Amino acid sequence: MNDTMQKQLGATLWKIADQLRGAMNADDFRDYMLSFLFLRYLSDNYEVA
User: Can you give the residue ranges of the N6 adenine-specific DNA methyltransferase N-terminal domain (predicted)?
Assistant: First the structure.
């Protein structure tokens, strides 16, 4: 992936994040998303004993 494509991808992802966030404060959105990422990490790394 070249530099131009990375910049386009970053801009697109930022635009999507803004739409999802809506009127929510950016700090609140960050906390909300970090919680989901943590749960995803736990889910992906869960081992049945």
Answer: 9-47
